[in-house]
Amino acid sequence: MNNSTTLHIARFLLLVVVQITVLNQINFLGFLNPYLYIIFILLAPININRSLFLVVSFLLGLIIDMSGDSGGIHAAACVTIAYIRPVILRSSFGLSYEFQTVKLGNVSFGERLVYVTLMVLIHHLILFSLEIFNFSHILLIAKKTLFSSVFTLVVTMLVLVLFRRRDS
């Protein structure tokens, strides 16, 4: 196992533990909860085996679901953003993605913000649509998606800035 693989396994485990033990206990204003565990999906290598990535993303969501008894909504949201990640990467980074030279630490803040925002919004829209599962409550879905996305986005960007690797 090389250092990169060890780093990804450690990141997976750390994010799961922090999400379950700390972040799932936060319920700010009754509905705001940061979902920091999606950083694992955001920071996965560009050239990762796609099938393996989808399976690991499913397992990530499933572990979060099992800890919170949420019936698979996190797993569905994780698999969805893992599946559409190449499209979001292409639209956020353009030619850098096409030539597989994208490293999240080396791109401009604006490009990084666009990428993270799109992934977080899609994840949260799917998550809360499945949680509420009633389109007569579309405003509640929109409210939870918007406010939790902003909260998650701020925390995620802070973590990415504070813990970014200098050599990446």
Automatic annotation (TrEMBL):
Membrane topology, as annotated, equals: Multi-pass membrane protein
Task: Indicate the secretion signal residues.
Answer: none
Q: Which UniProt keywords apply?
A: Cell membrane, Cell shape, Membrane, Transmembrane, Transmembrane helix
A single GO CC term for this protein reads: plasma membrane
Where is it localised?
Cell membrane
What is one GO biological process annotated to this record?
regulation of cell shape
Origin organism lineage:
Bacteria, Pseudomonadati, Bacteroidota, Flavobacteriia, Flavobacteriales
**Protein name (record):** Rod shape-determining protein MreD
- Return the similarity comment: Belongs to the MreD family.
Source organism, top-level taxon = Bacteria
Q: InterPro entries, from UniProt?
A: Cell_shape_determining_MreD
Say where the protein is mainly found. Answer: membrane
The membrane-spanning stretches of this chain are 12-31, 37-64, 71-93, 113-133, 145-163
